[in-house]
Amino acid sequence: MDLGFLKPLFTRQGPWASVYIETTRATEDAQKIQQLRERALASQLIDADVDGYTVRAIMNHLLQEPVSGAPPGRALFAAGAEVVLDVPLARPPAATDASWSILPHVAPLAVLKGDQPDCLIAFVDRTGADLELCDDRQRRRLGEARGRAWQDRGHRGTPEDRQEWHYRHKVENAWEETAGIIAAELVRRMPETGAGLIVLAGDARERHAVHHRLPERVRAVTVEIDGGSRARGTSEEVLDRQIRQAREKFARDRLDSALDRFRTGRGRPGEHRESTVDTGPGEAAEGMPAVLDAVRTHQAATLLLTPGGADAGREVWIGPGADEVAVQRGQAKAMGVAKPERARADDALLRSAAAAGCEVLVVPEGVAGPAGGLGAVLRWTM
């Protein structure tokens, strides 16, 4: 999970009301059920000592939820009588939950938001590409990338005369330029849409050309599928299935790669050094103190989180700054925090990870992960 969308939560002080609620409206009595959920939520907020203005802001926000097209669930984060962030969830929470704490309780998002990346789709042909953005709920059109308009006569054999050769040469040059235009537009659109994956669909020759022109860092998160075209002759059901499979495979491969690096790094600390003495950490951190230090110092590239792990719910000490987090109160004071406050370890780590640009991957139940439920793959070693 890319944590960039959480940054608005960490630029202002708490306390925070954090709400997780199911919003599915797929049955005939869904509206009545939702009203009961919201009534129970209001009671939870009041019991948690959330101030009345913030309770009212949350309840008014939920009243604006559309009757149709609602996601399975929502996470709301409110402070100072304002709903600061509303996050649609890929799956509903097991039960309505509300809390009031110094930090927003963002840890459940790691599971409920889903680990499949939003993807930027390009339906490519020789004249340009139609662009769409796909998330857990829908595909929506973003526009197009247009190339130069040259009519290809479709001849692939030997040119009959010099004029034909010049014409075909211009057509090829125009296509090469178009492939570059499409690649540049994808590079531009990727960060502004928050997409973690690019899917190239359409004509095989043309999508290969676009793929080849992407920068290496973008090629690493780009896949091609056989279905789809600008003419949309392919079944939408088939196309949706191919896109879903591409997103699932990307998420699975990313987790497998991170776990391989974590297990290798954990298993051979200091192995890269010539000394027989263990003089430093490997490419992984495990356990509360080591992971906290790696995330706080921006050394962690990937935070591995096992839901329900023993360390996740432990208390740590924090200050107002994202990197002011320590296992012990005295350590926080040594960092210059005048009045350290208690917070959940997982919420504090996610705050630091968001500030450091660190991704978070959830280790599913049954998969061997870090001891205590917290681990990190490092950007560098000491």
What sort of overall outline do the alpha carbons produce when their principal axes are compared? globular
Q: What is the chain-wise order of helices and strands? A: EHHEEEHEEEHEHHEHEHEEEHEHEE
Judging by the overall fold, what is the CATH architecture of the largest domain?
A: 2-Layer Sandwich
How many strands, which pairing sense, and closed or not: the largest β-sheet? 5 strands, mixed
Query: Which stretches are low in confidence, meaning pLDDT under 50 for 5 or more residues running?
Result: 152-156, 268-281
CATH topology (level 3) name of the largest domain: Nucleotidyltransferase, domain 5
Helix residue percentage: 25-40%
Q: What do these coordinates show?
A:
The chain folds into three domains: 109 residues, Translation, Eukaryotic Peptide Chain Release Factor Subunit 1, Chain A (2-Layer Sandwich), CATH 3.30.960; 116 residues, eRF1 domain 2 (Nucleotidyltransferase, domain 5, 2-Layer Sandwich); 107 residues, 60s Ribosomal Protein L30, Chain: A. Helix 1 packs antiparallel against helix 2 and helix 8 packs parallel to helix 10. Strand 6 and strand 7 form a beta hairpin. The chain starts with 15 loop residues before the first strand and ends with a strand. It contains ten helices and 16 strands. The protein has a five-stranded mixed sheet, with helices on both faces. It has a four-stranded antiparallel sheet with strand order 3-2-1-4. By secondary structure, the chain is an alpha+beta fold. It is globular and about 85 Å long.
